[in-house]
Amino acid sequence: MTENDRSGTPGTPGTGRNDDNTTTPPPYVPAGQEQPTQAPGARGSIRNQEAGVTRARPESLADKRARQQAEAAELVRRQEADAEFERKAKLRKRLLVGSGVTVGVVALVAVWYAVASPREVTAQCTDSSDVIVDDDYCDQTYYSSHGGYSSGGFIYIGGNSYRYNYGGAGTVGQKVSGGSYTAPKGANVSTKSGTTIQRGGFGVSGGSKSGGS
């Protein structure tokens, strides 16, 4: 390479040297603008953590106290939740038992009321052909005043016989439909005209005003 070639070729950038092996001084930096250098691991620097190499920072006293307080608070919360669950479970059980007792008492009262309240049965006077006649023919006052008498559940007046039908349907002059000629036990029995034949209740029946009961 000739001297002219060396003088016409600029220095290679970034090498700090010219082609003639002379050192190029660093660029000028005004005072106060120099970049400070930091030692590795100094405060404010960023360190990359590597698995198996980087160690965890030891727990401080404040961190330990905060962790213990959090654990204690969690324990208290769980105990309170368990206590509330037990309280609600006992309350539900008590309500179920109370409901069962109430239902049992209501059923018992209903049965007692049904027994204590006798049914009402209507009696109608009928002749020997099972035709409904006026209630007076079965009334003790009436047949006694007309020379009649009662025997074996029948009432006899002037050669004719009459007796009560209990629970049958029909009106005077019609043949009775249904019913029974045996007085029902434990029932209140009365005629359509309002005469009481039998008083019931708790299986106790009263006597009839006529021999036809």
Order of helices and strands: HHEHEEEEE
Query: How large is the share of residues in beta strands?
Result: 5-15%
Gyration radius (Cα, Å) is 60 Å
The rounded distance between the terminal residues' Cα atoms is 160 Å
Mean pLDDT: 76
Which class do the helix and strand fractions yield? alpha+beta
Could you estimate the helical fraction of the residues in percent?
25-40%
User: Quick one: biggest sheet?
Assistant: 6 strands, mixed
- What is the approximate shape? rod-shaped
The order of strands across the largest sheet is: 2-3-4-1-5-6
Counted beta strands: 6
Total helices: the number is 3
Short description:
It contains three helices and six strands. It has helices at 3-8, 61-116, 140-145; strands spanning 120-127, 149-151, 154-157, 160-166, 188-191, 196-198.
What is the strand and helix layout of this fold?
Elements: H1 3-8, H2 61-116, E1 120-127, H3 140-145, E2 149-151, E3 154-157, E4 160-166, E5 188-191, E6 196-198
Parallel strand pairs: 1-5
Antiparallel strand pairs: 1-4, 2-3, 3-4, 5-6
Description:
The protein is an alpha+beta fold. Among the domains are: 62-117; 120-198, no CATH class. Helices cover 32% and strands 14% of the residues. The protein has 3 helices and 6 strands. It has a 6-stranded mixed beta sheet with strand order 2-3-4-1-5-6. The relative contact order is 0.09. The model is unreliable at 1-9 and 202-213 (pLDDT under 50).
